[in-house]
Amino acid sequence: MRTKTATSPAFTLVEIMIVVAIIGMLAMIAIPNFVKARETAQKNACINNLRQIDGAKQSWALEARTAGNAIPGKEDLKPYIGRAGNIDAVHCPADRNGTFDTSYEIREITVPPTCKPNDSGQVTGHVLL
Q1: Cα gap 9→15, rounded to integer Å
Q2: What gap in Å lies between CA 44 and CA 114, rounded to an integer?
Q3: pLDDT class of 128 with cuts at 50, 70, 90
Q4: CA-wise closest residue to 101 among 63, 122, 74
Q5: Exposed/middle/buried for 106, CB within 10 Å: 0-12, 13-18, 19+?
Q6: Which residues pair with 115 in a beta bridge?
Q7: Does the pLDDT of residue 86 top 90, yes or no?
Q8: Do 125 and 93 contact (CB within 8 A), yes or no?
Q9: % the chain with pLDDT above 70
Q10: pTM here?
Q11: What b/e string do you get for 1-25 counting C-beta neighbours within 10 Å, with b at 16 or more?
Q12: Is the CB of residue 111 less than 8 Å from the CB of residue 79?
């Protein structure tokens, strides 16, 4: 006569440790790629904002008939910026403060606008070519 032993359908400790190790290895591979993708997306968004600011500067200079060394103010560019003229919505995604004034320098008409350094003083690398 056979006796039935009750076996539980549970995982062993070794199986659980193997699964945790595999998940850890996948995380080690994936997390740096996510960080790099985020930085690239922020850089591209900032460069597009710089293009928009430069286009607004050029439009303002053309309509105002100003010299190439003139520097438009933030208020001068409002009608030429997208988002219904809301220039405060235009900021560098890498900027923690998230305002136009802390993100960009407008500069002269003949010089492209620049992204300001971040809080630690390092240049973000967001450059309009």
Answers
A1: 13
A2: 14
A3: confident
A4: 74
A5: buried
A6: 104
A7: no
A8: no
A9: 88
A10: 0.75
A11: eeeeeeeeeeeeeeeeeeeeeeeee
A12: no
CA distance 49 to 55: 10
Alpha-carbon distance of 32 to 6, in angstroms, equals 46
Break the chain into its structural domains and give their ranges.
15-115
CA 65 – CA 85 distance, rounded (Å): 21
DSSP string, the chain: ---PPP---PPPHHHHHHHHHHHHHHHHHHHHHHHHHHHHHHHHHHHHHHHHHHHHHHHHHHHHT--TT----HHHHGGGSTTTT-GGG---TT-SS--HHHHEE---TTS--EEPP-TTS--------
Length of the chain: 129
**Furthest-apart CA atoms within the chain: distance in Å:** 105
Yes or no: say if 31 and 23 are a contact pair by the CB < 8 Å rule: no
Query: pLDDT tens digits, residue range 46-82?
Result: 999 999 999 999 999 999 999 888 999 989 998 888 7
Q: Across residues 16-34, what is the average pLDDT?
A: 94
Task: Name the amino acid, one letter, at 38.
Answer: R
pLDDT at 120 over 60: no
